[in-house]
Amino acid sequence: MTPRFLLEISAFIAVIAALALLPLFASPYGITLMIGMLGYVALAIGWALFSGPTRYVSLATVAFFGIGAYTCAVFSEVLAYPLLLLVAGLIGLGVALVVGLATLRLAGVYFVIFTFGLAELIRQLVTWYEVNITGTLGRYIFLPVTPEGIYWQLLALTAAAFAMSWAISRSRLGLALKVIGEDEVVASHSGIDIARVKLGLFALSAVIMTLVGAIQAPRWTYVEPSIAFNPTVSFLTLIMALLGGANRLMGPILGAVPLFLLFEWLSANFPNHYSIILGLIFITIVFVLPNGVLDFIEKGWARRLPVAKPAEVHK
Amino acid sequence: MSPFLQVSGLTRRFGGLVAVNDLSFSVAKGEIVGLLGPNGSGKTTVLNMISGHLPPSDGQIALADTRLSGLGPHKIARQGVARTFQLVRALPSLSVTENVIVALAFGRKRLWGEAARLEALKRLEQVGLAHRAGQQAGDLTYIDQKRMELARALAADPQLLLLDEWLAGLNPTELQTGIELIRGLKSSGITILMVEHVMEAIRALCGRCVIMNAGIKIADAPTAEALSDPAVVTAYLGEQHA
Ligand SMILES: Nc1ncnc2c1ncn2[C@@H]1O[C@H](COP(=O)(O)OP(=O)(O)O)[C@@H](O)[C@H]1O
Ligand SMILES: [Mg+2]
C-alpha cells in the first residue's frame, strides 16, 4: 500500500463521514435537496460504470429506477423494509440480465433507441397492469422511513457504487473494459469474453439504478407510472455523466452535483421553459465538451504546460 | 507426423463472392508454413476464420483434438491461437506495456500486476521495443506498432501463431532482424502459419507453402517446388506470361 493510496482512502472515508453528519445540521429542505442530489450522483455513477468504458449510450436508466420505485410501492405492505430493497435489487438484476442478453449485440444508435423504448415499454406495461388488473393507476407508499434514513441509505449506496467503480478501474475487469472500448476485435482475440463482461457491467449498473429508485420511493408517498418512469431521469443522468466525463472516477460526481443544483433552480424559476433549457444544455454539452469537463481542463492544462504533461503521464 | 492444425473443406462466402472455396490443408506441430497467393485470393479470410474473427460458411478447423470452427475468438485465443493483423490493431490510448499486458491478463497465463509487467517487458525486449515501453501505443511509428502487435501475440503464449504480412514494409535491415526473430520462435516450438509476400522471407523461413488463387488451393508443397509450380507462376504473372 502506497502512501498515496492510504491518503486517498482516508480522504474518501472523511468525506463520507462528513456527509453522514450533515442531516444533524441541515434543514428539512436541505435534506430533501441532498436526497435528490445523492440520487442523481448514484445514478450517474451507475450509468458511467457501464456506458463510460463500453460507449453504449443507455437511456434505460429510468426503466430500472422505476422498477425499483414500483417494487417498493407494490410490496411495501407485505415485505419488511430491508427485504424490500433486496427484492427490488433482484428484480432489477433479472430484468437487466434478460434485456442485456437480448440487446448487447445491438450497436450504436440502435442500442440508444432500444433502451429508450424499453423504458417506455415498461411504463406502458405497468400502466396497463394497474388499470386493467389492479383497477387503480396510482399507489400510496407508507413506510416508516425518515428522510434522514433515506439520505443515509443513499449515501451508503453512493459510497458503495463509487468504491466499486474505483476497484473496477484498477482491476483486470477495468482493463478488459478499456480494451473493449478501444477495439473489440483485439479484446476478443486476447481472450476477453466481451458478451459476459458487458452483461455483467450492465447488470451491476442496473442494480445500482434500481436501488436508487427503491430507496427514494418512500419520499413520494404517492407514485404512478408517469412519475416513476419519467424519461427526464434518463436524460438528466446521461447529461450529468457526460458533463463530468463518463470515463473518469470523479466525472459523474463532478457532473451530477452542479447540474442537479442548476436544474433545481431552473425548475423553481422557469417551470414553463424547463424542458427547452434542458435540451439546450444537453446539446451544448455534447458539442462543446464531448469528453467531459475533466478532459477539457486537462487538455487546456496540457496546452499551457506543454513540457509538463509527458512526464506526468509517465506512471 | 500427425497434423496439429487441420483445415478441411473450409469455405467462406460474402454474398455472391466465394472468398475461400473448399480449402483443405494441414500444418504439423512446430512447422512454419507460408500461405501465399495474389491479392484478394482469400488468405486473410482464412486467418480470420482460424482465429474466429469470421465464422466459416462451411468446413472445419481443428487444432490438435479441439474443434475451433464454431467457437468465438476469445475461446479460440484460450486454445492457444494468437495472431497479428494485416492492418495493425494497436490499442492507441493504452501504453505499449499495457497493450502487451492485455494478452497476459486474459490469455492462457492469466498474469496480473507486477508479474504481468515484467513479462510484458520481456516480450517487448524480444521484439526490440523495450525502449518504448512507457509510450502511448498511438505515438509509435507503424513499424513499431507492428512489433508491439507481435509482442502482444507472443505474450499470449500461443501454440499456433498466425502472421498476416507481418514482414511487409520493413527495410532490408529490419527484414533480416524480423526473419531472425521468427526463426527464433520456431526453436521454441511454436507452430506458425504466415501470410507473406516477401519472397526472401518465405524462402528463408517456410519449409512448405500453401498457395491460393481466387479462394482455391492451387499448390501445397515444399517451398521451392510450390513456387515453381506452373499453376502458381500463372497465377502470379497472369496467363500471357506462362
Ligand atoms: N468482410 C468482408 N466482406 C466482404 N468481402 C470481403 C470481406 N473480407 C474479404 N472480402 C473479399 O474476399 C476476397 C478475399 O479477401 P482477402 O482474404 O482479404 O484476400 P487476401 O488477404 O488474400 O488479399 C476479396 O475479394 C475481398 O474483397
Ligand atoms: Mg490479406
Written account of the structure:
- The complex is a heterodimer of chains A (315) and B (242).
- Chain A has 315 residues and is an all-alpha fold.
- Chain A has helices spanning 3-21, 28-54, 61-75, 81-103, 108-134, 147-169, 172-182, 184-189, 194-216, 225-228, 232-244, 251-269, 274-288, 292-304, 308-313, and strands spanning 139-140, 222-223.
- The model of chain A is unreliable at 306-315 (pLDDT under 50).
- Helix content of chain B is 38%, strand content 26%.
- Chain B is built from nine helices and ten strands.
- Chain B has helices spanning 43-51, 73-78, 96-106, 113-126, 142-155, 172-187, 199-205, 223-228, 230-237; strands spanning 3-14, 17-28, 32-36, 58-63, 66-67, 81-83, 160-164, 191-195, 208-213, 216-222.
- Chain B is globular, with a radius of gyration of 18 Å.
- The interface between A and B is medium-sized, with 19 and 29 residues.
- The structure holds adenosine-5'-diphosphate and magnesium ion.
- Chain B: One of its GO terms (cellular component) is plasma membrane.
β-strand number of chain A: 2
Would you tell me the overall average pLDDT of chain B?
93
Helicity range of the residues of chain B? Answer: 25-40%
Shape verdict of chain B: globular
What distance separates the N and C termini of chain A? 16 Å
* N-to-C span of chain B: 35 Å
Strand content of chain A: under 5%
What does the oligomeric state look like here? heterodimer
Which regions of chain B are unreliable across 5 or more consecutive residues at pLDDT < 50?
Answer: none
By CATH, the superfamily of the largest domain in chain B comes out as P-loop containing nucleotide triphosphate hydrolases
